[in-house]
Every structure is written in C-alpha cells, then in structure tokens.
Amino acid sequence: MSFQFPESFLWGGAIAANQVEGAHITDGKGLSTSDVQPNGAFGELVERQDGDFNIKDVAIDFYHRYPEDIALFSEMGFTCLRLSIAWSRIFPNGNDAEPNEAGLAYYDKVFDELEKHNITPLVTLSHYEMPLNLAQKYQGWASRDVIGFFTQYAETVFKRYGHRVKRWLTFNEINVTLHEPFTGSGLPRDCDEQTRFQAIHHQLVASAKAVKLCHDLIPDAKIGNMILGAMLYPRTCHPNDMVKTLVQNREWLMFGDIQARGYYPSYMTRKFKEMGVELTITEADKEDLKETIDFISFSYYMTGCASADPQEMEKADANMLQMIANPYLQASEWGWQIDPVGLRYLLNFLYDRYQKPLFIVENGLGAKDVLNDEGVVEDDYRIAYLNDHLYQVGEAIQDGVEVMGYTSWGPIDLVSASTAQMSKRYGFIYVDRNDQGEGSLARKPKKSFYWYKDMIQSRGANLAAPE
C-alpha cells in the first residue's frame, strides 16, 4: 500500500475518566456505578464499606498528573484525545439542582492543557458509569426521570465547554446494556428483557435529546454516537448460519440504525414480539429520536462467528460477547481474537449502511507487558497489532470510506474496564502500578511510543504490508 492518510485525519488515543482519573471522591465528586465495581465492569456490584480497596479509586492518578500525560501525548504527535467527563463529578448525585463547580473547573484545566498542545478533545458524556444515586434511587435508566437528569448534565457541559470542545459522543458502547446491564444502564444484572429494553429506549431518547442540545447550543460542533463494533461472520456458508448471522448482527446494529436514521428499524418489531417486550414509546419520544447524529464512532477489538448449530453455540468463548471462535484467527492473552482485516470489512459495512463519516475511537491490544533488564518494554507484538489494523484502515479509506480519525484504546496504561487490572496493559506509556495498587505511578515510554510517533509523523507512510 503506497498511501498516506489525509492531512485532516485525527490521530490520538482514548481514555475514560473512571479508568484513569482516580480521585474518586475528591473535590465533591459523588460515587459512580463504576466505583462499586471493584472487580471490573463485568463483575458483580459490591456495596462499599470503609477501607474497601478499588484500584480505580486512584487508577493512574490522571486527575493530578494530566499535564505530564498530555505532554507525553503531544510528544507522540497526538492531534486528538478522546476522554470522558465523569458525570458524578459534575452532578454528584445525578439529580442535584446545581452542578459541582469544582468538577467543572477541573475539566476547564484539562481542556486548557489540551489547547496548549493543540490537541483536539473528543468528549464522551457517559463512559461506563453514571451517578450511583441514580442507580439506587431510580433503578438507573429503567426510570424515564433519568432522561431529564442526563439532559441537564449535557446542557451544563455544552454551555460550559462548547466554545472549545467541538467533537462530542453521547454514550460509550451504548449496546453494552445487552450484555452487562449494570455497567450500561445501572440495572440489576438479573433484570428482565422488558426492563432492559425500556431502559435502552430511555437512553436512546436521552442521546437524541443531547444531540439536539449540542446542535442548538454549539452549532459549529459535531456529535456522534458510539457503539461496540461486534461484527459476526457466519460459521459456515449454510443458509441457516447466514440468517443467524444477520439476526445476531442486528442486535448491535439496532443502536446505530436508530441514532443514524431517527426511528426503530422494522426488524425490531418481530424481535420485540418474540421476546414479549412492549415498549412505552411516546409521540414525544418519536419526535426526539428524529434528531440524528453527525457521525458514527465505534470500538473495534475482535470479530466472532455465528451459527445456527446448538453444538457450536456451546463452544462460545466465555467473554462478555459469547462469540464463537473463528478457526482462522489467533487470540490475545485474554482470548480476544485478532482480526485486522475485519476492521476494513466493518468500516466498509458501516459506511455502506449509513453514509456518514466514521471514527475509530477504540482499538488496541491488552497484554502483560514486562520491563526488560534495561527497564524498557519491548512491545513488538503491540506494534505489529497496530500496524496491521492501521494498514487495513488505509485500505478502507482507499475503498472510499470517509474515516475521521483513529484513537487507540489506552495510549497510557490504565485500569482495565472488564477486569479492573493494571496488568492488562494497552498503553504506549508504561505506568508503574500493579494489580494490588503498588508502585510509584512513574510514566515511561515503551518501544511502541516511538513507533506510533513516527507513524503519525509520516501519516501512515511507514506502515508495513501484513505478512
């Protein structure tokens, strides 16, 4: 591939407040749903007692170290940083009458620092967390009241930061409620389908109302959605496998369809009927949903297979998505199958479906990085992973897909969302902290730091063709 990425292409990394900031009750912040998940987003809810350990309470202390970290991102050549605002830092209980000024002032300082380094912020309003009080008092997004609390929060931050933040996302991986309802919507893990899909509906309405607020309050801004790109291939070419794949892919595509088109797709009528789900959708809801997003953003880590054969389903991986393994692919240390070509396929698939600009806002390799005798992480495996995926992004752009940018997941080591581990490392920057919370928190560039820097500088011209 003799190719350079467009000059307007945004390069950077992605982080989430609850995985990097720490300072979980500092400066008036309230507890979030993430603060009561000490074993990760896909673990059980644990009621906090005094003295309980949650590695996210400190995380990597980005709350205090953000100038140092942003300077390192700048050294790599970042033109974009995806970050989230902690909702409970702005409205500690979620239903507060007035926002917490100390929380607002904190993000002012972060945006100041990004501006100093000419790094464009891409801000997620809700990334795998919400104020805990809303989950406890209102059963999370099961309550229609939460729509109003979220729009109050969105309006507050749009008015505060709209003059400097021009790229926004509503919910991180909004389809995750299908798999982990507490993480996605503050619901009990054993909630029924009626409750789950009503909560999803409330969240979709809230997202659309936030999109309208953004369009009205910041006319020169762009706002997108964010979905977990969980593309499935048919396990075989048997027609039943083809239909099963179609049906299962629609489970996550529904979220993109509603937010990009402004209404529920017709295929959901049958699905709701088969599940016995009857949603309460008001005429006002239908009007709200018509306010559509400006671009599609997604995470991409792996693909899987779908099969109509019950025996194949029994072989599904024990990860969150319960995907059937693809025999042609290798897997990471955490069992996530590695499929760079799948990223090109997904980009083309989504662009064909929506004809809207696309933004890859999460992609990366979690691995057990080890410092060598010289104190350096020789993460050639990460370089190979990123090279092969970015090569396929270049191919998709040449296919005619409009790709806005790429923010790798975890440009600096952070607390894993799924397992609350530090040992599952994604970053270009090593952070001295282990799973027990021990370490100096010192930052040190890995080998991939310098590779990514060169890749950005050359606009992808130094990407090697996959073997």
Describe it.
Helix 6 packs parallel to helix 8. The chain is of the alpha/beta class and 467 residues long. The model has no long low-confidence stretch (mean pLDDT 95). Strand 9 and strand 10 form a beta hairpin. It has one domain: Glycosidases (TIM Barrel). This is 6-phospho-beta-glucosidase.
Short description:
The protein is α/β, with parallel strands linked by helices. It has helices at 17-20, 62-76, 87-90, 101-116, 132-138, 145-161, 181-185, 193-217, 239-261, 267-275, 283-289, 310-313, 340-354, 380-399, 447-457; strands spanning 10-14, 80-84, 120-126, 167-171, 222-228, 232-234, 295-299, 304-306, 330-331, 337-338, 358-362, 403-409, 429-431, 443-445.
